[in-house]
Amino acid sequence: MSEDTTFKHESLQDLDSIIAYLEAVRDGFAKKRLTLADGEHEMVLEPKGLIRFDLEAKCKGQGCKLALKFSWKDRPTDSDSGSLAIAVG
Asked: Whole-angstrom Cα distance, residue 54 to residue 72?
């Protein structure tokens, strides 16, 4: 993605639906393409390279929260620096 775009969705889901969404995210990372859609909006993400993974869990009173965050930088494929080789002589 080269343009500034935001996709946000918030809803209440049962546990089976959450499991299905997590499996879809896993499959999207495996295929290096995640398509997010909610009927009105759509966003396609193509994760590559090193991906930062943040996990935060909190419980306070009877409420708990689990936040997962993945972030990466989109880079043109021609700017890949490749591997480093150092030779003597």
From this structure: 12
Entry pTM: 0.75
pLDDT tens-digit series, residues 30-85: 999 999 999 888 999 999 999 999 999 999 999 999 999 999 998 655 555 668 87
Q: What is the DSSP string of 23-86?
A: HHHHHHHHHT-EEEE-SS-EEEE---S--EEEEEEEEETTEEEEEEEEE-----GGG-------
Cβ-count burial of 72 within 10 angstroms (0-12 exposed, 13-18 middle, 19+ buried)? middle
CA distance 88 to 13: 60
